[in-house]
Amino acid sequence: MGWHPELAASIRPFSALQPPNVHGQIAMLAIPADVLLQVYEATLGQTPFLIEHLSFNDWASLVAVMQNKPEELDNKIREFASNIAEVCRKSAIENRALNLITAKAEKIILELHGYDASHLDSARQVSIAEGSETFSDTYINRMSLSHVELDYLKKKEAERRSNAHIEITPLTRDAGHKFAKNNPFLPLASSTWTEKAMQRVHNRLWKLDTFNYAAPISVEAYMALAGLTEADIDNCRTTARNATIYFAATRGGLDADFPPIANLEKGKCPRKPLLHQKGIPKFPTDLSELKKLWNAGRPYLKCICPGCEKNFTWFDHMIRYVIGNLDKVDPRAPSHKIRMLEFQALLRTKWRKPIMAQISFIFMRECMIKIVHLITQNKTISAEEILNFEDFINVPFYISSLPRSFQMLKVS
Ligand SMILES: [Zn+2]
Ligand SMILES: [Zn+2]
């Protein structure tokens, strides 16, 4: 994939660099040329280059800084530049180790609930070992390569390592078996990993091996796109803490001119969907409920036609897809730059409440994943002990959902 034609003028000084993914470039459309140049210059002559490695979330957070705290822009870019090498290093480790980390955590969770986890003993334990170099140093040293040749080889080698995991994971499976027995279900992958993985499925996140991946859009990125304030975010935190569901499935659902699901994928329902939120589950009574638990409070779109089977998508999956396919929202707009502005306007008006619900869901899930980490670190921890951790004091929701399912720990 090349550079977006509408970026041609602003990226001229660095057009030889590898362009970011579609989403990164769409976010770049919302950033003036002089700021892009500043980002480029921040890692001039030193790899990894910011232009090649900033994520969609990073670009979106620049948009937020420009709009809300322009005086902090220089610092923000400098911070990106000093962190980028570490970000890339961690991402390479995650690419190698994610399968194993997920399998280990799932084994613990499944066994706690009394389910068979033997498929995880040998499965998916790939390349945890430090990825070995393709060529030995001694061999390369004898090749008398020039500085330029050597740099190029190193760069390619780093790319190979960072893509290693993504290439071996069977990402797409039959949609009908998303909650099948042996599919992974714990959403432990970082947004960096998800952003890379979803390139393989043309930004259709629902095609990955589990429905539980959240779109790689951070709270900061939602803030930037929807023009939310810190006070709005505090409200979302309170909503998450109180487990408030604004769009319960038992009620009518919100009609805010969401695109038909057929616009996201051919053959799906062509009618306009409504927005609902998943409820807060009680103790999961079977394996499939345990696998779906991680979507408590999550906003989704569903059409109203009775018996319609191809009618469901998570709200955040839709948002992520639409950002990469802005013509689906506003086909008549004269340019992508305008489409991006119109899309942001939509998030600031009609879709503002769903975005707030999405952010509340992110906070709910963050708490759940923290609990998973506590449990996987210490299998004999009790529900009370979990709730004694500072983060979880006064959070009744987590008593009624997740920790309750771990009450059995006290018995064993
Ligand atoms: Zn990188
Ligand atoms: Zn339908």
Automatic annotation (TrEMBL):
Domain of life of the source: Eukaryota
The protein, known as: Uncharacterized protein
Organism: Chara braunii (Braun's stonewort)
Source species taxonomy: Eukaryota, Viridiplantae, Streptophyta, Charophyceae, Charales
